[in-house]
TrEMBL record:
This is Pur operon repressor. Homodimer. Residues 113-243 form the Phosphoribosyltransferase domain. It holds the Pfam family Pribosyltran. InterPro entries: PRTase-like, PRTase_dom, Pur/Pyrimidine_PRTase, PuR_N, PurR_Bsub, WH-like_DNA-bd_sf, WH_DNA-bd_sf. Keywords: DNA-binding, Transcription, Transcription regulation. Belongs to the purine/pyrimidine phosphoribosyltransferase family. PurR subfamily.
Amino acid sequence: MEKMKRAERMVAITQVLMLKPNVLTPLALFAEQFRTAKSTISEDLMAVKGSLQLSGHGHLETIPGAAGGVRYIPEISKGEATAVLNSLAERLNDKERILAGGFIYMTDLLFNPSILRPLGLIFAGAFRQKKPDVVVTIETKGIPLALVTAEALGVPMVVIRSGNKVTEGSSVSINYVSGSSRRIQTMSLSRRALEARQRVLIIDDFMKAGGTALGIKSLMEEFQADVVGIGILVEAQITSEPKLVEGYLSLLQLKELNPDSGKTTVVPVFL
């Protein structure tokens, strides 16, 4: 490789780090790749670190020692997070999204990477200090949201199934009461999916009464897991009934849903 100028090298270093978020990269690897001294790489990294802090797109963690290196921690600025949530709330307030049963159609948004990635960064920033070992969700619509959150945190994601799957092997199953339909349902998780006593972050797309979240917490108790947080994209607040779980974080609240008038009010609450 032809030796790069400093500006070119800094751009390349930034690209390498951002393509591998939460992964520790040794300085020696950069020195070898760009054919320059570690001291020069260290100076470049200080400049990259300052640039990231100014832009609000994350920060660098430096680990000293022979086994150390640098790690990129992705983040989202407060201004960008506010814009993302305001835009999403506006799109959800479209009367064409109203569904029977007090729900809003969100599938197209939940499978749009350009919308999901910022949401994952928002959740990751809110729960990073809780140091979760794994992100847990239940199939199906919450999977993309949980995946981008897990990626931003640099941890695995685990999916709870609505029933037993032969390909999952031995599973733990529990019955729970769905908060929205008040029906008894079953959720299960493979015994191999989660190690005992792991720190778990629960992520889901919608909460009405909280029955599903409560069921997930109960299932996590079977694995002796410690639930360190619950993140919900949209929380329904259209009744005065208390939720079945406490201590959750919602990004948006559904405050009004009137199918007759086509009136929907979704507002950001995490700003």
